[in-house]
């Protein structure tokens, strides 16, 4: 017998003891054993433990019984299935016992067992078999109405079971429905309530036929508003509708036209509880079926607006009188200083506020309004006109719970009004977003007036609501609260000084103040600083660490906002500086503080010294020494390094001599640490110190730093390398003599880094700066010629050893560095250029040497002067005929770049060559593209017409590659003079042949960049006309138009946002499969189907994906989903795209996806179960695997919507996946991947 089994048998023996304490301790020990993962029970032990625990469930001692029930949970996972079934049978039998205590224990036991069962989705059949066992017994217990307690317990368990394991019980759904429906008319309220809950869970999991039966039953039972019916019966039916709406509202869409008018009528009955249920049902319908609720929105809105004010027992009109009295006497604030209770008119008895149910109606109406606003963003303008004023007036609501929901509804309105990403107010004409913001701006004074009193309300929750709402308002409309600062400051100070209530309100007030400092102009705070600062200082000294940390953050933000480094000081810091530095120093000196407070105190001191160091006087040196001390401490060193960076980078040029000699060796040691954040912060600090302190840096300490830097210049971490090279460049400029000592190892590492094909632009720019500093120092740290030969050595030596060639990118990096050196030493430019020309011309030069020479000349040639340039022309032209493709490309690039510096000479020559040399035209077009990109727009104006004419001659070329370069050249040419040239595109679109039209649309695509550009306003006026090309008869033109539209949506949505109503129908048209574009091609004995429309469809679906990222609020998602659904059955490429879109839609707008989830699953199932024909090529198998993987990802994304798992079709599909080992393994790996990987928010498609 194993040790565990022996231990358990001894425990079982003690459980039979007559002493209840023995039994209790033994059961407790058994519980501990069962909770261990390592425990393994043999069959005999299992049987004994189960038998003993079931016996203990009937123990005379309640505590032992409770412990025995708790043991059932962990036991379920440790014993075999038949033992679980034994437990369930015994518990069901106990449920029917005469003893109440035993029934209760059995009920708890069943719930415990159910909660521990593995979900059906894991492929275990245990849950299903147990539930089937229980279900029959539960239905009979519910149907027998002799004992209500048994009924209630059974309903509870059933509800629990349906919520977790609804789908596997498919076979019982019909009997469950027929058992539960009669309970809706039970005389007991508790039975009706539980039946309502269970029906809601059943509605989510049952088949469509049963759902229709349930909906019809509820609709048929609902009497007309004038038909006699008991209020309780109507209430139950409406509550049931609400429950079904919350759990399975997505399935109610088709019934809403019959349902909603009935519910609207019931709102007018004088029954507050019924009204609350009606509004809760409306809320569920609005959230789950926003589109189907469309026709009913006006009626529901007017009901909400009517009942959000429904407070028959209270008179709000005394508001005005009180305001005139201006009393602050708290004795009148029993009812929140807003009004007074009036007794109900006919009541003779004493009126009790406890009888008042109207607040529940108001709360339900407020929640319903929040659901309405969040589900219909398209109606925002009308919401601002109709809902906003009413919500603002209701801020004076007397009931705290209702007030919180009124605030919540207004906050939802604010969030919906927040402008979309990439929306630039300055650039846009008054669009929808602009007008919504304008309306909101008009509401700000009303909001402030309504909240003025609330900010000083005695209720903490009311003030928290005010702060949340105002913070959201400041985020949506930055700067809008500046003129109302007196009211806000008074409210903030009131909450900061409130020590009677919990600390959360003070933290909320501090967080709100911090946010305000970020959104409102600094001048708005100047007048209020004497009032604001004392309570903030008191919070800095507060003993509770969270308040102190928050207050230090506010203090730091105050210093940053009121005395900015990049502008003049408009406020004299003298009255405040002493108090601020004393409070921060006190926090900084204390050693027994919470880590967060320490870090915030260091950061705050850094800001104080950096922004106001010149006014600190005697406090400056102690502050710096404390910073030095914190540098030595492992816990605070990162914060101290960041604070030091801030101080060193301050324009106040603070004297850091007292700490430099000791700080630099400490910083040097940090460069060896494994902590990446610390290394990055240290490098930034060193660069700041070298820049500000320069010559005063002690050389001995700097040597320690420089010794550590070379090892950081490596491609293992490019970001660290970039900062290290930047620091080296700064040190070189400050103390060149020091760098001369270590230049050897540093250069060796740098040259190794420059040979990396993955070199980011930032690292390359840093390397250029460093090399320029090396040769620019006086005397130079390294000789110019030596440095150039070091740089170019890898290319020149390549021939000798015949090893693997360098990557193309390396040539560009080295050429940039050579050019940077030439710029730093103007006297060497001509010689360098001549040497490069010789290298390029020499017949003995390898292709690599020539490529490097041409790329270097492209950079150097512009500053080389006319001498070498004349010679260069001939060399470059000759190189365009080189047998090496790389040499031809480099020569073409160099010709354009050099030409940009000398247009009068080069452009006519270039245009002449294009006419004379048709075979080199493609390369010469590349040169022209480079010249157009590099030259100044004004210098190009005289040649515009010639270039324009030449390019349009080339638009009809047969090669697509050539037309692409022509389009890019046209795009760059239009930027020279947009108002004049852009309108000419329209003529070409109207008159040109298909290739010309295609080239023009592609050229317009090159005018769109992701940064604001002066051409944007002009381009916006023409976008509509260019988009008309979606109706062009030529396929290629339509594809180019879609590529242009995709680029606009992705990079600058504002260009097309207002045109989407016209564009979307045309876009959706392009997603349809056109039979007339599908043809059969005979390839020997085989027939092959070719779909000419595939590329256009693919482009259209890519546009749809981009629209999800930037214009989601403008889309009718139901219409959008129709086309996604078609795409799920299309070609391989399109299915891959639509699977990704479906996964994205499941995250972005789960409600409409949920409504049609049953239809979406079928194409996913077809993909997952498809088989590749035997004898197919390897690629076909790989394609099918990739499709399956992508479809599985979509399934996993759909399952993140909670209700999807309850859909019977999804449950069936999941069981199909589980039963197939290959699919099960694939699905499991995808679920693991999605759990571990951060969500990828967007996919690059432009």
From TrEMBL:
> Where is the protein situated, by its record's location annotation?
Nucleus
Entry coiled-coil feature ranges? none
A biological process from GO: SCF complex assembly
SUPFAM superfamilies in alphabetical order: ARM repeat
| Keywords, ordered alphabetically | Acetylation, Nucleus, Repeat, Ubl conjugation pathway
- What Gene3D superfamilies does the database record attribute to this sequence? Leucine-rich Repeat Variant
Domain TATA-binding protein interacting (TIP20) per the UniProt entry, residue ranges: 1055-1217
Q: Give a GO cellular-component term.
A: nucleus
- Database matches in InterPro entries: ARM-like (IPR011989), ARM-type_fold (IPR016024), CAND1/CAND2 (IPR039852), TATA-bd_TIP120 (IPR013932)
Say which family it is in. Belongs to the CAND family.
- Protein name per UniProt: Cullin-associated NEDD8-dissociated protein 2 isoform X1
